[in-house]
Amino acid sequence: MKTEQSLNVLGEKLETCGNSPKTGFYRDGCCNTGPDDLGNHTVCAIVTADFLDYSKAQGNDLSTPRPEFGFPGLKPGDSWCLCAGRWQQAFEANSAPRVKLRATHQRALEACELADLKAHAADLS
Length: 125
What we know:
This is DUF2237 domain-containing protein. By secondary structure, this protein is α+β, with helices and mostly antiparallel strands. The protein contains three helices and three strands. It has helices at residues 49-57, 84-92, 114-119, and strands at 41-46, 79-83, 98-99.
């Protein structure tokens, strides 16, 4: 597996997003990406019930376990690498979850504005 340079949206080293459940396109706990990640799973979000409902209504049920894919299902409070485009859609629908900027890959900026991500930041003081 070849991943792109692992920098976050702040231009710093990409931090871990979540290990319980193990997230990331490569299931390495980070929002690493590469040419085979066509969904751009680069936004590290802390999912909420509102976002899970929104995503399900859009046809992407993230709360139901799918053991055949090794997916435990998400619950509010879990950290998960979301598709940048889905996060942007949720943002535009006022359903975007909080974001861990230090764990959000710089490639998320292909679909999301840094100002919007910062407005939902969980890790800025």
